[in-house]
Write a structure and sequence with these properties.
The complex is a heterodimer of chains A (583) and B (190).
Chain A lengths: L6 E5 L21 H4 L16 E2 L5 E3 L4 E3 L4 E9 L6 E2 L1 H7 L8 E2 L7 E5 L19 E5 L19 H5 L12 H16 L5 H7 L12 H19 L1 H4 L11 H11 L7 H6 L17 H14 L7 H6 L13 E2 L3 E8 L5 E5 L8 E4 L8 E6 L17 E8 L6 E6 L11 E4 L3 E4 L5 H28 L11 E2 L3 E9 L9 H11 L9 E15 L17 E16 L4
Antiparallel strand pairs in A: 1-2, 1-22, 3-4, 5-6, 5-11, 7-10, 8-9, 11-12, 12-13, 14-15, 15-20, 16-18, 16-21, 17-20, 19-20, 21-22
Helix pairs in contact in A: 4-6
Chain B lengths: L9 E3 L5 E3 L3 E3 L4 E5 L2 E2 L4 E3 L21 E5 L2 E2 L4 E2 L3 E4 L2 E4 L2 E3 L3 E3 L4 E2 L3 E2 L3 E3 L4 E2 L4 E2 L3 E3 L4 E2 L4 E2 L3 E4 L4 E5 L11 H6 L4
Parallel strand pairs in B: 2-5, 3-6, 4-7, 5-8, 6-9, 7-12, 8-13, 9-14, 12-15, 13-16, 14-17, 15-18, 16-19, 17-20, 18-21, 19-22
Antiparallel strand pairs in B: 1-2, 10-11, 22-23
Chain lengths: 583, 190
């Protein structure tokens, strides 16, 4: 309630066209506008409007479509992957093989998401020559400098201060080693051989396996998953021997067996060969831990006991569990979270596939190779109250009291533009605001170089500044009445016009319309956001630009550079002017 | 603000810095201002927190006397504090220099103990930037955030929360708006 900063949102024309009730006047090509823009008024409070309104800074402008593009109608393409903590670039091949997390030593605290730093547990050397001691020795732990969590609390310590990701992958919470994937694979191959042999020999072979694997061991989630995956892969391979020939990938879509199945689908099942059908369906389920089965009646009991003894404080919060990849009901189960990689992305127009923004691929540079932002193409709108608000006065708008605002249009183009504004006389919604734009049609000068202005300024300085002073003086006296059809103030590439609004009264009993059926239905409450005066404005910009940039070299284009093209752009804006005093 | 100060609020230096008379700048010899920087009232800059730990290579020793380095067109709002970060290293406590690049805005009552702040960084009000944080270019830190120590904030991030985390990205169009030249020009003794 205290303060309100006026805002301007622009509507992107990509909004859904399937809703005929919602106005989409700007969606049509400019020629048909005459008959459409009177009838439909953009309602900034409509539930869909939220999804099409953006501040100007968030919008792009496609030079080929000559249209505004919003974050919802562009395509993102990843240029670079990098770790947001160590800022090292990760090649996309590594991302595919290792996953989307940093595999160096970048971790987040599992308790509070702050970054973890590696520190030594050994007491720093003291006494003479302490500063000459070259390297700190282990063991090392991960420490959170924000909430003071330490990996020691969950029993994790490291031997080396670098390559923490690889080290962590080998340690369970509590310090026990995790069987590496390599060991498991060795074991699995062992078992595969058993399967192909006799199943009776299985038990005896198992005991002789290089690593003694307990069929009832408690698996950590990663190894359980890898066990299960391996088990079902062998099952699938065995159940359909036809496809076993080509079974290399996870799904084996390219295999002859799968192909014949798919062909069977098309031919109504008659094609599906009986042979493979009879043979499939003999898949069995996992039997023990080695195959990924985990039946652990103890774990529930353990959990209950732990809750009894350590209480609610020992459980992990929903956010903390959300960050983890596995099931972690207790704080002691939490593991440091490796940083998710971040990306640099280029953006393309969804309609014509031209690039709208392309950053440099290097992580450390912040330059853009291509950056077509709407800011450089369509005039920005700045809202200011015409009468300066005294610091003592209430920042709220008094109901039913006309207020005047200054809209300043700044032209970023190097051609002068003609701007036409249109607003509904009354804004849509339950509490309509009366709106009058005193000067709906004006021209904004070109955005020439600053030097041009400086040079011109020298000649006309006296007259210009005199003019400005006059308007200012008059404004403060309140004598200079905003005249209809006249621009309030004008600069090199900007124009200010006055808009007068009469804010509505939010009293339910004042509103005739509400007294009827609407009030009974809604209970007459002022809904959230209804006290904000938002005004839809239809802006039409016309200018004569140079004929289409670089790639429209239509043969003779190079000969006469003076070819000018008439351009037109029309869109809805929403001006947030202020809040109305509720009582 | 009833009585106007006779000399004006700001002292303007040769390089165009506008330094409030009511700011507390300690250890001025260890502070570098790149120029056109605004320092408002009640700002504290701790230039006295010098690095005491000997530099690893002797060639660095000349530059050892800088505690706070600030670039051009920075803006330090009322009541914020810049303090070089310090830590215990090999059994010895030492401060390390705080480097701030160009076009950095620091909101009122914020405390900065970062190691490095890149260009075009906007820090809101009542923000705490923890020790040895590294903030890259084009970053916006929203009001009331607490950036944890040692955090690295990559470019084009919007950061908020306690502890701070990346909550969004700076849009391509917002990049131009983070220039502080206009803000500098608006500050005067008037």
């Amino acid at each position: 309630m205290a303060s309100f900063t006026p805002y301007t949102y622009f509507q992107c024309p990509c909004t859904d066209t399937s809703t005929p009730t919602r106005n989409l006047g700007d969606e049509q090509p400019p020629e048909t506008e005459e008959n459409s823009d009177d009838e439909r008024t953009f309602d900034p409070r409509a539930p869909r409007s939220n999804y099409s309104l953006y501040p100007l800074e968030h919008l792009f402008y496609c030079e080929d479509c000559h249209q505004i593009r919003c974050p919802r109608c562009v395509l993102d393409e990843i240029v670079t992957w990098y770790c947001p903590n160590c800022l090292f670039e990760v090649p996309s091949s590594t991302v595919k093989s290792e996953g989307n997390r940093c595999t160096r030593s970048c971790f987040q605290c599992p308790i509070c998401v702050a970054p973890l730093s590696v520190s030594s547990l050994e007491a720093p050397p003291e006494g003479l020559g302490a500063e000459l001691a070259s390297q700190q020795n282990g063991p090392f732990v991960l420490n959170c400098a924000y909430c003071m969590w330490s990996s020691k609390e969950t029993g994790i310590q490291f031997e080396k201060p670098n390559g923490i990701f690889a080290q962590l992958a080998k340690i369970k919470n509590g310090g026990e080693p995790i069987l590496t994937a390599k060991d498991r694979r060795k074991d699995r191959e062992e078992r595969k051989r058993d399967f192909s042999g006799s199943s009776a020999a299985e038990e005896s072979q198992e005991n002789e396996a290089p690593i003694n694997l307990d069929p009832n061991e408690r698996l950590d989630p990663e190894s359980q998953f890898s066990n299960l995956k391996a088990f079902y892969q062998t099952q699938m391979a065995e159940s359909s021997p036809v496809s076993a020939l080509g079974f290399t990938g996870d799904y084996g879509y390219g295999s002859p067996g799968a192909l014949s199945r798919i062909m069977g689908l098309y031919t109504g099942g008659s094609y599906a060969d009986k042979k493979s059908k009879t043979k499939s369906g003999t898949m069995r389920e996992a039997r023990d831990a080695l195959e990924g089965l985990q039946i652990d009646p103890l774990s529930d009991e353990d959990a209950i006991n732990k809750l009894r003894t350590e209480g609610w404080e020992s459980t992990a919060s929903a956010e903390q569990r959300h960050e983890q990849t596995t099931h972690t009901p207790f704080l002691s189960d939490l593991r440091p979270v490796a940083y998710l990689l971040r990306t640099k992305r280029s953006k393309r127009c969804k309609t014509c596939r031209h690039i709208l923004s392309k950053p440099e691929s290097k992580v450390q540079t912040t330059r853009f190779r291509i950056r077509l932002v709407a800011l450089n193409y369509i005039p920005s709108i700045i809202i200011k109250p015409l009468q300066p608000i005294l610091p003592t006065a209430s920042p709220l708008l008094a109901p039913l009291n006309p207020v005047q605002f200054l809209l300043t249009f700044k032209n970023p183009l190097f051609d002068s533009v003609k701007v036409t504004l249109a607003t509904p006389a009354k804004t849509p919604g339950r509490f309509p605001t009366k709106v009058t734009v005193l000067c709906p049609q004006f021209e904004v000068g070109a955005n020439t170089d600053v030097w041009d202005e400086a040079l011109r300024d020298n000649n006309t300085k006296s007259s210009l500044s005199g003019e400005k002073r006059r308007t200012k003086a008059e404004a403060s006296e309140g004598q200079h009445q905003a005249e209809a059809g006249k621009v309030w103030e004008r600069g090199r590439n900007w124009v200010s016009v006055v808009v007068e609004v009469v804010p509505p009264s939010l009293r339910i009993e004042d509103s005739e319309w509400l007294k009827s059926e609407e009030m009974k239905r809604d209970g007459g409450e002022v809904r959230d956001g209804e006290e904000v005066v938002e005004i839809p404005v239809f802006v039409r910009v016309e200018w004569e630009g140079e004929v289409g940039g670089e790639d429209s070299g239509l043969g003779g284009g190079g000969k006469d550079k003076e070819v000018r093209e008439k351009r037109e752009l029309a869109y809805w804006c929403v001006l947030g002017l202020g809040k109305v005093d509720v009582d | 603000m009833s009585k106007k100060q006779p000399k004006g609020e700001y002292i303007e230096t040769d390089t165009g810095n506008k330094v409030s008379r009511r700011s507390q700048i300690i250890g001025t010899t260890n502070i570098i201002l790149g120029g056109k920087t605004v320092i408002q009232a009640e700002v504290i800059i701790r230039g006295d927190l010098l690095r005491t730990y000997p530099a690893s290579n002797p060639s660095e020793k000349q530059g050892n006397t800088v505690a706070v380095a600030i670039g051009r067109y920075c803006f330090f709002s009322r009541g914020c504090e810049l303090r070089p970060p310090g830590k215990l290293y090999k059994g010895q406590f030492s401060h390390y220099p705080l480097k701030i690049a160009d076009h950095v805005f620091v909101g009122p009552s914020s405390i900065i103990e970062a190691a490095l702040i890149g260009s075009h960084v906007n820090i809101g009000s009542n923000v705490v930037v923890g020790k040895f944080a590294i903030i890259k270019d084009y970053v916006r830190i929203l009001d009331g955030s607490v950036v944890p120590p040692n955090m690295v904030i990559p470019s084009f991030s919007v950061v908020a929360g306690r502890p701070a985390r990346v909550v969004g990205e700076i849009a391509e169009g917002e990049v131009d708006g983070m220039d502080l030249r206009e803000v500098y020009r608006a500050v005067g003794n008037g």
